[in-house]
Specification:
- By secondary structure, this protein is α+β, with helices and mostly antiparallel strands.
- It has a domain at 125-180: Roll (Nucleotide Exchange Factor Grpe, Chain A, domain 2), CATH 2.30.22.10.
- 59% of the residues lie in helices and 18% in strands.
- The strands form two sheets. Strands 1-4-5 form a three-stranded antiparallel sheet.
- The protein is elongated and about 110 Å long.
- The relative contact order is 0.07.
């Protein structure tokens, strides 16, 4: 059953002023709702602004982190290069004196030791091979040869493998025994 506005106001009207109290109450209610709606809009705007700032801060932090990582890599690379420069200088000097075979050989051995020392300083170490048990985590079998030795023993190192602070840089290429 549909009620029109007059029906509602006539039931609740005071005797002297028809519809005055309902209009006043609905006006206050409407004003209160408008105020609440405006407060919610303001709060939403504030939260959206905060979210945008947080996202910008996060993005800036991510970019700073990437920049710091790149700078660190360059710093480490420069340090490695500096440690290898004396080896390069020695090699150039040795190549300049190749007429004297004895001095040339000893110069090359000196350079080899310098390079080993430079690599050891940064944590590069050779992988032990000959006579050891073949380990596929550290060795790469290039050849298998029949032998009187125990099965899967490293007979010969064809190319030295290296680790960097316990992590594999390059596996050692080896010849492995197979029992006759």
């Amino acid at each position: 059953m549909a009620m029109n506005r007059q029906d509602v106001t006539t039931k609740s009207e005071p005797e002297g002023q028809p519809g005055a109290s309902l209009d006043n109450a609905s006006g206050q209610s409407s004003q209160t709702q408008e105020n609440e709606l405006q407060e919610l809009r303001n709060e939403r705007t504030t939260l959206i602004d905060r979210l945008a700032r947080q996202q910008a801060e996060f993005e800036n932090a991510r970019k700073r982190s990437l920049r710091a990582q790149a700078e660190y890599r360059e710093y480490v690379l420069a340090d490695v290069a500096k440690s290898l420069l004396p080896v390069l200088d020695s090699l150039e000097r040795a190549l300049g004196h190749k007429e004297e075979a004895k001095d040339f050989s000893s110069g090359i051995q000196l350079i080899y030791r310098q390079l080993q020392d430079a690599l050891n300083k940064i944590g590069v170490e050779p992988i032990a091979t000959e006579g050891n048990q073949f380990d596929p985590a550290w060795h790469e079998a290039v050849e298998v040869e029949e032998s009187d030795l125990q099965e899967n023993r490293v007979l010969d190192e064809l190319q030295r493998g290296y680790t960097l602070k316990g992590r594999l840089l390059r596996p050692a290429m080896v010849r492995v025994s197979r029992h006759k």
